[in-house]
Amino acid sequence: MKLVLDTNVVLELLHWQDPRSAPIAAALAAGRARCFTDDACLAELERVLAYPQFALDAAAQQALHARYRALAVRVAAADADADAAELPRCRDADDQKFMELAARCAADLLVTRDKELLRLARRRARPAPFAILVPERAAERLAAPATAGESA
After folding, report:
1. What would the pLDDT profile of 38-56 be if each residue is shown by its tens digit?
2. Of 81, 71, 80, which is closest to residue 129 (Cα–Cα)?
3. What number of helices (H) and strands (E) belong to the chain?
4. Domains of the chain
5. Residue 129, SS3 per DSSP
6. In a 3-state reduction of DSSP, which class is residue 130?
7. pLDDT digits (tens, 9 = 90+) for 64-88
8. Helix (H/G/I), strand (E/B), else coil: 25
9. What CA–CA distance (Å, rounded) separates 98 from 36?
10. How far apart are CA 91 and CA 42, in angstroms?
11. What is the rounded CA–CA span in Å between residue 101 and residue 104?
12. Residue 26's Cα: distance from chain center in Å?
């Protein structure tokens, strides 16, 4: 399953090690899922890791960033992304990059806790071509195929 993780979910996985996101980490480690990123999302993560509230020195910031780069498949940015015009627009322009990345890599899930992105999941007029879910719901989706595959 292809995933795009927003910055907060990356922090849940790698910085806070939030148990609610642990099934996603397990699916990534087992190869049942792959996550994708690009330069814009990596730049945001790098910027956020430097926030004082995380109390990470430069070495810790670099280490966490490197862990994510090793975990995620990096995709190139598109010059003129025709699919972006078909996507619903997020009210927060900073979050639109996750929508565009998810479309560009044909993600199954955009995993987020961002209220604006989650609001787009409820749009009926112009839905996204992928599910937009909180980590707990994404974990449920990741568990379902593994259970079905075990009987084979």
Report:
1. 999 999 999 999 999 999 9
2. 81
3. 8, 5
4. 2-150 (3.40.50.1010)
5. coil
6. coil
7. 999 999 999 999 987 555 555 578 8
8. helix
9. 10
10. 21
11. 5
12. 15
